[in-house]
């Protein structure tokens, strides 16, 4: 029997310090996530310098905790994986330097992982990926439709031309005085309201899989401004429902159109916004009606975590893709760059 492959993965691209030990790319032995949300809340968003400082403070204890909780030592580990980008450069560098130090000190291979590839592979931790598939990526920094013909093969077929969907959620939340991060708050309120504000759906050109959320965001802000000027009551629940309906209509319609056009019967969803209840319900309904197998990770694997980085890293490890100790962080990286050429 082949020996199991153990990867220690590190993720520090934004505001979670996370370390995980993953067996054979699909089994979580530990997944420690140290969230900084409470620190950033008072600023209404992530402050890069504050994020870097928290990563520095938390990284070594998080590594220790991940090993202890997996009941492993560094000698059991086969490779060290780390998020190379995209993300906040100062935050990424904390994880990358910790990973390099471990790789050097214990003489282990270093595996650089694309953050969005990680989000996609979060699905693989709960149910093996099957191909071809369409991945709908919806996070704080990204909104993309990706076609995958096989493991680690990413073809972007559509992407946002302006704001990412999570960013639009957070900005709209701020305009109705909800705390950061606004996405989950809007989602909660949206369950209690009605679609009364008639916000636009931005479809772009016929057959385009691109997205645009800045017009919707401006429409919400303008509407609220007008209501405030006229001293009319703003029903936050209805704003949330109307906004969420517009977002969910566009995301789910384009994802279903992509599945049909590419003749794919597997849809996966990835990224922080994948935990959105409205989106999950709508996609479940549409996929059932169209015979498409849908996978969405459990909410704790939708937001940033190192387990997903370890899951993606396994395929790089198998393909022998490793980095030298001069690895640098990349704040901007295209998901197509993460493709492993067969
Ligand atoms: O993937 P993620 O944890 O970080 C990035 O890589 O960007 O995504 C964070 C984003 C935030 O914008 C947050 O507001 C949003 O995901 N989010 C949600 C929900 N939960 C998190 N947006 C809508 N509904 C939710 N339930
Ligand atoms: Zn993320």
TrEMBL record:
InterPro entries: ATPase_NBD, Gcp-like_dom, KAE1/TsaD, Peptidase_M22_CS, TsaD. Binds 1 Fe(2+) ion per subunit. It catalyses: L-threonylcarbamoyladenylate + adenosine(37) in tRNA = N(6)-L-threonylcarbamoyladenosine(37) in tRNA + AMP + H(+). PROSITE patterns: GLYCOPROTEASE. It is found in: Cytoplasm. PANTHER family: TRNA N6-ADENOSINE THREONYLCARBAMOYLTRANSFERASE, TRNA N6-ADENOSINE THREONYLCARBAMOYLTRANSFERASE, MITOCHONDRIAL. This is tRNA N6-adenosine threonylcarbamoyltransferase. It comes from Staphylococcus borealis. The gene is tsaD.
């Amino acid at each position: 029997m082949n020996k199991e492959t153990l990867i220690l993965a590190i993720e520090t691209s934004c505001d979670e310090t996370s370390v995980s030990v993953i067996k054979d790319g699909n089994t979580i032995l530990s997944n420690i996530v140290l969230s900084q949300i409470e620190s950033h809340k008072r600023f209404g968003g992530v402050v890069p310098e504050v994020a870097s400082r928290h990563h520095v403070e938390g990284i070594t204890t998080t590594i220790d905790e991940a090993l202890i909780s997996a009941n492993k030592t560094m000698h059991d580990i086969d490779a060290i994986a780390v998020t190379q980008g995209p993300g906040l450069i100062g935050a990424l560098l904390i994880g990358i330097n910790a990973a390099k130090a471990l790789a050097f000190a214990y003489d282990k291979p270093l595996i650089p992982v694309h953050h969005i590839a990680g989000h996609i592979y979060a699905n693989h931790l709960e149910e093996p990926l099957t191909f071809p598939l369409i991945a709908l990526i919806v996070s704080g920094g990204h909104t993309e439709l990706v076609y995958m013909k096989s493991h680690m093969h990413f073809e972007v077929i559509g992407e946002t031309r302006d704001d990412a969907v999570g960013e639009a959620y957070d900005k709209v939340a701020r305009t109705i005085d909800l705390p950061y991060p606004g996405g989950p708050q809007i989602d909660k309120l949206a369950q209690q309201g009605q679609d009364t504000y008639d916000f636009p759906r931005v479809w772009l050109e016929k057959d385009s899989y691109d997205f645009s959320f800045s017009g919707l965001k401006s429409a919400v802000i303008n509407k609220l401004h007008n209501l405030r000027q006229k001293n009319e009551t703003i029903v936050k629940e209805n704003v949330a429902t109307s906004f969420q309906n517009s977002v969910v209509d566009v995301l789910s319609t384009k994802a279903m159109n992509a599945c049909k056009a590419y003749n794919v019967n597997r849809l996966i969803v990835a990224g922080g916004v994948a935990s959105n209840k409205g989106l999950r319900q709508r996609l479940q309904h549409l996929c059932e009606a169209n015979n498409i197998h849908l996978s969405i990770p459990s909410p704790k694997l939708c937001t940033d975590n190192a387990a997903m980085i370890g899951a993606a890293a396994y395929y790089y490890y198998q393909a022998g893709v490793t980095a030298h100790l001069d690895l640098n962080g990349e704040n901007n990286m295209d998901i197509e760059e993460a493709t492993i050429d067969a």
